[in-house]
Design a protein that fits this description.
CATH topology of the largest domain in chain A: Rossmann fold
Distance between the termini of chain B: 20 Å
CATH superfamily of the largest domain in chain A: P-loop containing nucleotide triphosphate hydrolases
Largest interface: A-B, 45 and 39 residues
Shape of chain A: globular
CATH class of the largest domain in chain A: Alpha Beta
Oligomer: heterodimer
Distance between the termini of chain A: 34 Å
Strand order of the largest sheet of chain A: 4-2-5-1-6-7-8
Number of domains of chain A: 2
Helix content of chain B: 40-55%
Number of helices of chain B: 5
Structural class of chain A: alpha/beta
Strand order of the largest sheet of chain B: 2-1-3-4-5
Helix content of chain A: 40-55%
Strand content of chain B: 15-25%
Number of strands of chain B: 5
Strand content of chain A: 5-15%
Shape of chain B: globular
Radius of gyration of chain A: 23 Å
Number of domains of chain B: 1
Largest sheet of chain B: 5 strands, parallel
Radius of gyration of chain B: 14 Å
CATH architecture of the largest domain in chain A: 3-Layer(aba) Sandwich
CATH topology of chain B: Rossmann fold
CATH architecture of chain B: 3-Layer(aba) Sandwich
CATH superfamily of chain B: Cobalamin-binding domain
Amino acid sequence: MALETLSAEDALLYESLLEGDHSALARVITKIENRTPNYRTLLSALHDHTGNAAVVGITGSPGAGKSTLVDKLTRQYRNNDETVGIIAVDPSSPYSGGSVLGDRIRMGSTAGDMEVFVRSMSARGRLGGLSMATADAVKALDAFGKDRIIVETVGAGQNEVDIVETAETVVVVVQPGSGDDVQLLKAGILEIGDIFVVNKADMDEAAGTVADLEAMVHMDETASAGVVGGHHAPDSTDREPASGVDPADTGNAGNASDPEDGWTPPVLQTVATTGVGVDELRGALDAHRTYLSESDEGTKRRRRRAETEIHRLLRNDLGELTEQVVTNRGGLESLAESVERGETDPYAVVDELIEPIEAAVLGTLEPEE
Amino acid sequence: MSADQTQRATRCLVAKVGLDGHDRGAHVIARAFRDAGFEVIYSGLHRAPDEIVQAAVQEDVDVLGISILSGAHNTLIPNVIEGLKSYDAFEDTLILVGGIIPEADKTELKALGVAEVFGPGTAIEETVEFVREHAGPK
């Protein structure tokens, strides 16, 4: 689409990436991360080649076993001759902006295999920018032709939720004994999970955590999501017996839903270090993908993702335009100084800055009236 | 579109290669690089040269720091450099070696394309400064 407008260097990268050159893929992702000028033209060209990969987001608290699980899952996909792209997102230090990205260590079983492309990313102090960079990197991997793409992130806040939502299926990994059901509610992860995995299922507390999750998932089904957080959440005494307590009994993921009834998130159990339950997880992922394609939920999600993307890009560009406006008016510092000296107030400053923009927007609308 | 602000960071891979279980030095360097504001990817122990190459290529790092204390540097490091060349990733990667390397071998490694060798007792600031000077983010 935007092919003609690519620079010579980018055109070469574009060609090489589509031909399956891993170094080109790596360099395109660097451009995305650095926001190198015109990286968007490149993405716009790649966009045409996307839409074929199965994209999974995996989130959960630190130490829950996400990376190990991703490693085992990747091993299985490779045994099946599928190619895999992984984006491992780690937080960056709020002080130095630096980061240690350590997820690669736990993805050892496919090390040396170029068909598994692992890329580590950190926040680089950008607000909301990480989810944009992640979504763009997923696009590059998709255009490259990876069959499976996994986005892994520590689930802690809105930023992380935004990241996993660039995926079509979201897996939430919980470790046993990570608190009672209220803790799970607080974490705000219940709403985003399409599949729940209780990892380290060989620990004593696993059965209780599975039961908590199942109770909450089923409550979510019967009540509207907003009510779940109310005071009447069942406590441990009137909870339904959980059906998936025995690891051997977790194979019900595949039949969890049919397109008519919507999707009930299955609660699976795994022991990532030994690989127990990974088969079932793979089955559940495929079942969810089938569900998305057979119901209209898949279309809905794709549309929602496009909406989010347009919104993000728009906000980003508008943000940069306003920065320009601020610079034209003498910079943030001098504006702040006049507030500090008591000459004006922040509200008046912003009103004044926005005025010409408002006029321009309203101006373009006038002819239509 | 051109209004996009570029956001660069220096990316480093800190790697342990071969049968060498001493990773204290690598950890210290990884932390120091992080504190200097770099993005550090740590390889973990006992990596084969191929695995280091895979990580360096995929992560598109500006700096590859190899920590090696086993004495096998004359075999392992040329393998890593050859691998990087085969992926066209040698030219734009600053290769550093840390560990116990005899004086004679240093010259040889540098001739192969290693930018600098840091032996025991090197001040961390020196290493960080070297990276700042020689590795601009792409």
